[in-house]
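Sample entry (105 residues):
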Amino acid sequence: MRILFLHPKSFSQFSHLAKALAQDDTNQVVFGTQRTAGKLPKVSKAIYSAVKTVGAKTHYYLHNLERDVHEGQAVYHLCTRLKSEGFVPDVVYGHSGWGSTLYIK
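Predicted structure, serialized as tokens:
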């Protein structure tokens, strides 16, 4: 099974599950994150970057929403890249609170 984990701050709460799933050689586990530090055995890391920041004129109430949209767009581009490299996940685990999963189906 091909499994994609998504979290901007590295492995976080998914570390134990990702590590356990990666022990099965029939699984291919990829972790999409913004952080380059850290690694898990048999887990590939795919780095993405949400290059746009919240606009100076964005209303305060919308800061998190705008940040999350940029995060979601960065993850979408990461998934497009992974697909072009032949990785299409069967399962996606992601933290919805950061916007990572906004455009993932």
